[in-house]
Automatic annotation (TrEMBL):
The keyword Oxidoreductase applies. GO terms for biological process: fatty acid biosynthetic process. This is Short-chain dehydrogenase/reductase SDR. Belongs to the short-chain dehydrogenases/reductases (SDR) family. One of its GO terms (molecular function) is quinone binding. Gene3D superfamilies: NAD(P)-binding Rossmann-like Domain. It comes from Paracoccus denitrificans (strain Pd 1222).
Length: 273
């Protein structure tokens, strides 16, 4: 690997490292095109120890993620890769248990894993509804519940849940009604956690991205639809994974020490409300 001064970001040249030594569990990291990977890369740049989780995670994917981060950041991350079916509570408990066994604690949970379908409401089958809710809402619940047991014992911890602008405006850009409903549930779940666990030193916040250039667009948006959506965005571009990762860094770190229960819009101005 050839590391040059231009390769190494400013944060590794003596700049602030906002997550130095923090143990961060990031869920949904198998794709190098995704929000989860962009978040893992940024968090590692700021000194975090990483637990990267995905249904597709195996030793090969974990090694690819680690190598990609090392190439981009100029140093190898301290990283544990774990497979998890987030719809299964036992799997989620296993992930949290293994993270604590490896690193001794957890400081942050970031939930980026989700699936999307764009069917009209009358075309949504019961099986599709169950699938979307099981992954997007029940999965987030399972992970939060198990992480909160650790956070409560520690007296500290942060949760960042990725919701969607679809939850705020009722779908219509990419996801269908079942997707929008699942992400609306994520917002309500996050607010409930913030209210209940704030007195215990635990913060929880949600991010609502608009259309972001990840693999989730594949097969769900045509080129013509993409261009039409971008044309209606005040900033005249779709979101990028790093845009959402930057918001995750803010909410995961002490930069947002007095922020909990919020829903942070990262949408280029596409939904101003």
């Amino acid at each position: 690997m050839n590391i040059t001064a231009e390769t190494v970001p400013a944060a590794l040249k003596g700049g602030p490292r906002y997550l130095d030594g923090k143990v961060c569990v990031i869920v949904g990291v198998a794709s190098l095109r995704g929000i989860g990977y962009a978040t893992a890369e940024l968090f590692a740049r700021h000194g975090a120890k990483l637990v990267v989780v995905d249904l597709m995670m195996d030793d090969t994917i974990a090694a690819d993620v680690s190598q990609a981060i090392a190439t981009r950041n100029g140093e190898a991350p301290e990283l544990l890769g774990l497979r998890c079916d987030i719809g299964r509570a036992a799997d989620c408990q296993g992930v949290i248990d293994q993270a604590v066994a490896r690193f001794g604690r957890i400081d942050c949970l970031v939930n980026t894993a989700a699936i999307v379908k764009s069917d009209g409401l009358l075309a949504i089958s019961g099986d599709d509804l169950d699938l979307i809710l099981n992954v997007n809402l029940k999965g987030a619940f399972n992970l939060c519940q198990n992480a909160l047991r650790v956070f409560e014992e520690q007296g500290s911890g942060t949760i960042v849940n990725i919701a969607s602008v679809a939850a705020q405006r009722g779908g219509g850009l990419v996801g269908g009604a079942h997707y929008a409903a699942s992400k609306g549930g994520v917002i309500s779940l996050t607010r409930s956690i913030a209210r209940e666990f704030g007195p215990k030193g635990i913060r929880a916040n949600a991010i609502c991205p608009s259309m972001t250039e990840t693999g989730m667009l594949d097969g769900n948006v045509t080129e013509a639809q993409f261009a039409q959506i971008v044309d209606a965005i005040p900033l005249k571009r779709a979101g990028r994974p790093e845009d959402i990762a930057n918001a995750c860094l803010y909410l995961a770190s002490d930069l947002s020490a007095y922020v909990t229960g919020t829903t942070l819009d990262v949408n280029g101005g596409s939904h101003i409300h």
